[in-house]
Specification:
The complex is a heterodimer.
Chain A (H helix, E strand, L loop, with lengths): L10 E6 L2 H11 L2 E2 L7 E8 L2 E9 L4 H12 L8 E10 L7 E9 L5 E2 L10 E7 L11 E4 L2 H8 L8 E9 L10 H9 L2 H15 L18 H17 L2 H11 L5 H14 L8
Parallel strand pairs in A: 1-4, 1-5, 5-10, 6-8, 8-9
Antiparallel strand pairs in A: 2-3, 3-4, 5-9, 6-7, 6-10
Helix pairs in contact in A: 1-4, 2-3, 6-8
Chain B lengths: L3 E5 L6 H7 L6 E5 L3 H4 L6 H4 L5 E4 L6 E3 L11 E4 L2 E2 L4 E2 L4 H4 L5 E4 L2 H14 L7 E5 L9 H4 L1 H8 L6 E7 L5 H4 L7 E6 L3 H7 E2 L4 H14 L2 E9 L5 H15 L5 E8 L1 E3 H10 L10 E4 L2 E4 L1 H16 L7 E4 L5
Parallel strand pairs in B: 1-2, 1-3, 3-8, 5-9, 9-10, 10-11, 11-13, 13-14, 14-18
Antiparallel strand pairs in B: 4-5, 6-8, 7-12, 15-17, 16-17
Helix pairs in contact in B: 10-11, 11-13
Classes of the chains: A alpha/beta, B alpha/beta.
């Protein structure tokens, strides 16, 4: 079970088609296999750079449908808007040598002809390339690009659960026009992936940096146990979110006590509005 | 530094795009059919992208030069604006672009010649007007901050020599004024500086030059013979706003010659409601979005008493140095 560190602490989701594509990461992060079904899942708390984060590694199975199902299944469990999603795995490439690690800068789906451009915000040291997703293994490489089977489905699905800057794919070249797919097996793939662990972890560190200063969602003020319509609740929550950012903790504690004594929701809303009305910002002091 | 450049495929042979690309030899280049695929894609996070924006090179089709809202005038006749670029190298917390655009990437339209053709056509339409027609640049970007890369002023400023009934206003906070200082000043170009007190600039205008640096640049421009304008817009209300704006205006007018200042404009913090909601989602912790605001006619603006107070206070300070008819205010109420 993922540790609930803080409501908006990001979780790193790493998804691959095959177990051999992520075994090196499971080992590096010392993750434990869970009992979750239907997708094999490994989880644990690990240190990446300066951050202690929950990492979840999931194996989707081969192809777009399995990838989309796996992302949907995992996404439905998430609570943070700032979760990181990384697809890793092997890919063919027209130009790069076998063993090269690259970040996918554009992902085209052969079937729909749609292209997704994951925003390139995180710093990286790896190569980068576009990637074409196809339905079956192929030795026909696109011009200047990679070839895989899951990236397009991954991007399209994972972008529903996080900001697109945090949804990325990193591939390791397993084949190219000079070195065919033949002979690829779990052992070879594991070795290829093992050689890219450092780059993958480095990239995850850069992705974590992007969300490091995202605001902590303050513990929301609780609406007293009084009748309120849906729109009154929404109004209270919106005001409460602002008030939480302009008051210090002792002022918030005092406010909570006063809120507990109100007799109706309008009074509670007025109380929050009044605080904001009286708030005068101080430069350098909030 | 830009790590990734997106380039519209049709611009692969474009000379200006090629010149921009030479500035970033190590950047990844990604070809796109249309800039919108990258720039207007959904579910982007402006705040995250602002940490390391990419550059998008594109061609602007359709309407390139648009009339400004009626309120925004600085003494000219008809007023238009155009944007050769969307987004800015600075990160000002009050900037409406954060609420308007999905992406924080720098979108540069390289077809300057088309922009100029449209500007010239509009200037010709207004050739019989009593007052000159104004063209504002810098609403959706900073006109000069990216000058070493875009060569925007280098291209457009000399072009306005051909337009005797037109004025070009370059809105900026930048100290990138070399391209202007290297040429003869033109009477139909105004370099308008957005100004805030030093403490406000430090707090809410991340990456922008300090007030002192901006004033130094204005001084150099003024001494070289360029017309400059002052823009206190938005005026940021806070506990010490009177002290801060007094110090800022004292500094500005102690360093500049008021008789050579083209105009001063003043406005409060104001945003369309939808932009405000987006910006509040991006920066829920920022005091700017929780202080002194109210909603009116689809806008989120300072409460009337606050807006009147801050504009009047700063206007009074400016009137000590400038004639009233050179000071323009943009009130949100009762206009």
């Amino acid at each position: 079970m993922i540790d609930p560190i803080k409501q908006n602490t990001p979780v790193i989701h790493v998804i691959a088609a095959l177990n051999c594509e992520v075994k090196c990461l499971v080992d590096a992060f010392r993750l434990k296999k869970t009992n979750d079904k239907p997708f094999p899942t490994y989880e644990g708390l690990t240190k990446i750079g300066d951050d202690k984060v929950n990492v979840c590694v999931l194996i989707s199975g081969i192809g777009a449908i399995d990838m989309a199902s796996a992302v949907g299944w995992l996404g439905a469990r998430g609570i943070s808007r700032n979760n990181i999603w990384l697809n890793v795995g092997i890919a063919g490439h027209s130009d790069f040598a076998v063993g090269t690690t690259f970040v996918v800068t554009s992902s085209r789906d052969l079937f729909s002809q749609k292209t997704f451009y994951p925003p390139q915000v995180a710093k990286r040291i790896s190569e980068s390339s576009g990637c074409l997703s196809v339905n079956a293994p192929s030795g026909e490489y696109p011009d200047n690009g990679g070839l895989d089977m899951e990236a397009a489905a991954f991007f399209r699905s994972a972008a529903r659960f996080s900001a697109t800057e945090l949804v990325q794919s990193m591939k390791v070249v397993s084949d190219n026009p000079e070195s065919s797919l033949e002979g690829l097996n779990a052992k070879v793939i594991g070795e290829l992936m093992n050689g890219s662990v450092k780059e993958i972890v480095g990239f995850l560190e850069s992705l974590l940096f992007l969300v490091r200063d995202m605001p902590d969602l303050p513990a929301p003020l609780l609406l007293p146990d009084i009748r309120a319509t849906h729109s009154q609740k929404k109004q209270f929550d919106a005001l409460s979110s602002k008030v939480c950012h302009v008051l210090n903790q002792s002022e918030l504690n005092s406010l909570e006590q006063r809120l507990n004594r109100v007799s109706n929701v309008s009074e509670a809303i007025r109380m929050l509005e009044d605080i904001l009305l009286k708030f005068t910002p101080k430069i350098g002091g909030g | 530094m830009v790590d990734t450049v997106y380039l519209e495929s049709k611009l692969v042979e474009n000379q200006r795009a090629a010149s921009v690309l030479t500035r970033y030899p190590k950047a990844d280049r990604v070809l796109v059919d249309h800039y919108g695929e990258v720039f207007n894609a959904t579910r982007q996070n402006f705040r995250i992208q602002k940490k390391n924006p990419s550059l998008v090179l594109a061609e602007k089709l359709g309407k390139r030069v648009l009339p400004t809202p009626a309120q925004y005038e600085t003494g000219g006749g008809a007023h238009y604006y155009f944007s050769h670029m969307l987004n800015c190298v600075y990160d000002c917390r009050y900037c409406f672009l954060q609420g308007m655009l999905r992406s924080a990437n720098y979108l540069l339209f390289v077809n300057y010649e088309d922009f100029y053709r449209d500007i010239k056509a509009i200037a010709i339409e207004h050739k019989d007007d009593q007052k000159p027609v104004w063209f504002f640049s810098g609403y959706d970007c900073d006109s000069l901050a990216y000058e070493p890369v875009t060569k925007f002023a280098e291209f457009f400023v000399p072009k306005f020599k051909e337009l005797s009934n037109a004025v070009l206003e370059l809105r900026t906070k930048s100290t990138q004024i070399r391209s202007l200082l290297e040429i003869e000043p033109q009477n139909n170009v105004v370099v308008a500086y957005s100004l805030s007190p030093e403490r406000v600039a430090k707090e809410v205008e991340k990456g922008a030059p300090s007030l002192k640096k901006r004033v130094e640049s204005m001084q150099k421009l003024q001494r070289a013979g360029w017309r400059v304008g002052l823009r206190f817009d938005p005026i940021i209300w806070h506990a010490d706003y009177q002290t801060d704006y007094t110090a800022a205006i004292d500094l500005v007018f102690s360093e500049l010659d008021p008789t050579q200042i083209d105009s001063v404009t003043l406005g409060g913090f104001r945003l369309p409601k939808d932009f405000y909601k987006t910006m509040l989602r991006l920066y829920p912790e920022h005091w700017l979005f929780s202080s002194g605001l109210s909603e009116s006619d689809g806008l989120v603006i300072y409460r009337e008493s606050i807006e009147n107070e801050v504009i009047e206070y700063v206007r009074t300070l400016c009137r000590a140095y400038m004639p009233s008819d050179s000071i323009y205010t943009y009130p949100s109420y009762g206009s």
